[in-house]
Amino acid sequence: MSPRKYLLQNVAPYGGARTSVLLADGVIAAMGADVSDDEATIVDGRGLVLLPGLVDLHTHLREPGREDAETIRTGTRAAAMGGFTAVHAMANTTPTQDTAGVVEQVWRLGREAGWADVHPIGAVTVGLEGERLAELGAMADSQAQVRVFSDDGKCVHDPVLMRRALEYVKAFDGVVAQHAQEPRLTENAQMHEGVVSAELGLAGWPAVAEEAIIARDVLLAEHVGSRLHVCHLSTAGSVEIIRWAKSRGIDVTAEVTPHHLILTDELARGYDPTFKVNPPLRTQRDVEAVRAGLADGTIDIVATDHAPHTREDKDCEWAAAAFGMTGLETALSVVQETMVDTGRLTWADVARVLSETPAKIGRVSDHGRPIAVGEPANLVLVDPDVRRVVNPDEQATKSGNSPFRGRELSGCVVATFLRGRATVLDGASCDEDVVVRR
Amino acid sequence: MSSALPDKMPDARPDETSSDQQPADATVVLGGQEISRALTRIAHEILERNKGGSDVVLLGIPTRGLPLARRLAAKLAAVEPTLQAADLVGSLDVTMYRDDLAHHPTRTIGSTDLPGDGLDGKVVVLVDDVLFSGRTIRAALDAISDLGRPRAVQLAALVDRGHRELPIRADFVGKNLPTSTHERVRVLLEETDGRDAVLIEGGAR
Amino acid sequence: MKHLLSAADLSHKQAVRILDTAGQMAATQAREIKKLPTLRGRTVVNLFFEDSTRTRISFETAAKRLSADVINFSAKGSSVSKGESLKDTALTLQAMGADAVVIRHHASGAPHTLAHSGWTHGAVVNAGDGMHQHPTQALLDAYTLRRHLTGAGDPSGRDLAGLRVAIVGDVLHSRVARSNVQLLHTLGADVTLVAPPTLVPVGVDAWPAEVSYDLDAAIDTKPDAIMMLRVQRERMSSAGGGFFPSPLEYTRNYGLDARRLAAMPEHAIVLHPGPMNRGLEISAEAADSPRAVIVEQVANGVAVRMAVLYLLLSGSGATTETNETKVDA
Hints:
A: disordered C terminus, C: Rossmann fold, 5-stranded parallel β-sheet, 4-stranded parallel β-sheet
């Protein structure tokens, strides 16, 4: 069966002037008001926003090891529903993604599932134990072509080890993505250290534990001439440190999660572990600071840190619950709600922070491309005008730990195309055996 | 199933509901003077029945049984000079012995204060305003049995309105008031309500 | 309010009502027959995930004095793993028909989770959760303060307005401190927290209390009562987080000894939630002095817990008080 052609009529690339876009043979074949093709399935864009397919630099797919929470298949299907055409899968699996063998397995499973391109992230240290470097070169050379390395979940806290890793990845244009958390300052920490934690009697995770590591790492990166990426930046102080580092010409990039753009530590009152996450939800002042940082470019990208957990891991008292929230299917809506609807980002900026720059940091060459003739047809069509209530039970992700349950958010993904093939159409995922609607 | 820590807290002191709570369909069946005469008669009956008041303890059941007990004590002391009114009176709160707690909002517990000599060997006269099903008195008997061993227990009620659910009867009654169960008998006293009256309210509901 | 989870949930009226009811309960405990039939037929479960013989016995005594049936569940032991145990345990208890669950747990918020999870339908009483709250302790402390410091006669209806209380010790880790700060404030008292800077939480500025690092200066302000918190020896070493260089330095600066006791006003009393580290936060002389009401606190604990169980379990659940509507006589 020859691959379908799609004619996206009346769409607005980057929210701009309306046009029509023809997808054929995996690329954007033609663009213009008069484009037509009799063989193409017509998708009526109704003035909807067309963006390059989103690229997530920080996702947890849980496979291998915790397939009860998520698999590569369910996770990438969720990614497609969220408008993502490529995701970077974090290394804290079981076994750890610290060898060529495991990363190739993950890469292959992603290709077989076919919902989104999976780029495995390689662990920095063996077993994430923080003691010795993993075989970063072998992972870079493997079929998975790993370029992003992270011990996420844990911090590379040993300064010598962090220096070595920063130096070593220069050989293959890799980048170390640091989960900034000083372990001694955050022993058994449960939530942000502040007024709320003092009242609730929960051990605090102070902002300085994140900021101190970032400060150290940007200086290390400067010293050895490497690029550095900072995961899930969450505090006002961290934003200021990145701003300072960039002003010095240090090659650092930073990401913020959707939940840190909108939720605060007040949600911990009530002890609902849905809101337990690492780094923790911070104060309103921190939320304002990361929004400002994203708007002015200090924070380069939004990355979901999608962290699915089984019900048992969240249906208990706070201290016993796992850290993490899902996010692939709500990320774009949250960014629209907090940044576009408030006028701080344009849709072109959204393309930059959710697609172009993540692809650039991850050195992914076929995603985050301009919407232009000849480019790979990795696209997402968004309806910004709907409001929908989030219901995790209806999401594609296997897990229900969304912090937005019952909340109304702006916008929804209408269609997602991966190399010209529809993974989502009419707001529903396109399972192989389901007839694709017009 | 479990009750609330009530949000609306009553005062710990007896109810201050004023007498302007008399609704339009209330009938006054006893006025202040009649109440006074009834209490005087009861006081004499107590003395007569118990051959003087030397062993008598009047235990008023809060809320309104207590002021009634005090008035009776004053009248007993007025007739028998050897008696001291204060030594005759005590209060007996029966809340914790009731069998119907689960059917009503949480009740405030009142005070139980016994005269100095306690109850052993005494004649305890329970004093209450209205005798109805008898359950309060049943609870009072249980409370008394935990507090001591009186020689005898008697009951004085200002009003007996019938409809007993237990084999309990009053020894001294101010007024017998046949009522229907739909009606409501309310006793107002100077000490708690600002005036003395016995009212019947309701009727067909 | 269906549960007692936190001192912060109690209004002034509710708090005074509990104290008044505790007074009535205490009166019954002075009798020869201390047992009352009030909660006959009700089942109270003591769900203790943390060791605490004294608090458990206090609740057990309170329930039994009201003729409730008591089931003791102690979840300490290797068979208990994280998380599942609370939910599964609660479901089992519900199947047994618990009218009230008294829970002590090492995780802050566990009683809250239990009360709102739908796993149990009974009333939940927090007997201490992690570092968060210990509301019945604060209530019995307030009851004790009221008895001693608000004048002669029946204290019913009184609050603690104008009283000045110093709370000394490891505030950071103390659920007793958190509950007491809130309840004392609700009842109108002024609270000063005295602790080394390492044992005071970030965010304490939002609390309705003064903070002082100097115990002698705090005593110079002539407080009406001083409450000594238990300090854990383990926290003294660097292995325990090194909150304090040594026990000796702690005792020198923050311990209540005979000298400091003598500097307090004559009427002032000394409280301690127990168990005491004699010689660490409180000297033997201070603990045994006639101004220490520590043993009385234990007795008051039973009365207060009887009051709490009575108020949570005895009525029909409606919120309006109609004690004056005598339906039956």
